[in-house]
Amino acid sequence: MKRILLGLAAAPVIAYGIDWIVIVARPAYTDIRVDQVYTDLNKYNEIEYSRGDPVIERCVWALFPHGGYRPCWYVTKHTLQTNKTY
């Protein structure tokens, strides 16, 4: 039972280590355009939307986040960022 628990605990650490080695061997960073939308409440408690300027977000082609950058597989699926101002 201890071996199984040790194996389950070690698997994510090993996966992150392999992912880090691959990034160090060949840095794979990409810039992706992310659109921004701001939400605000008006005087009738209704939500108003306003479009913001798009931003360029740098991401890394990896399974896990590295160097403060989110993985590109996540950023490409979340290209619309909603910012609440209320």
Notes on the structure:
It is built from 2 helices and 5 strands. Helices cover 33% and strands 36% of the residues. A hairpin with a 5-residue loop joins strand 1 and strand 2. It is an alpha/beta fold and 86 residues long. The protein has one domain (2-84). The chain is elongated, with a radius of gyration of 19 Å. It has helices at 2-25, 72-75, and strands spanning 29-41, 47-51, 55-60, 70-71, 80-84.
Keywords:
86 residues; alpha/beta; five-stranded mixed sheet; 33% helix
Gist of the model:
The protein is of the alpha/beta class and 86 residues long. It has two helices and five strands, in the order αββββαβ.
Order of SSEs: HEEEEHE
Can you tell me the residue ranges where pLDDT is under 50 for at least 5 consecutive residues?
none
Q: How many strand units?
A: 5
The radius of gyration is 19 Å
SS summary, helix count: 2
Main sheet properties: 5 strands, mixed
Distance between the termini: 51 Å
Helix percentage: 25-40%
Q: What is the percentage of strand-forming residues? A: 35-45%
The geometry reads as: elongated
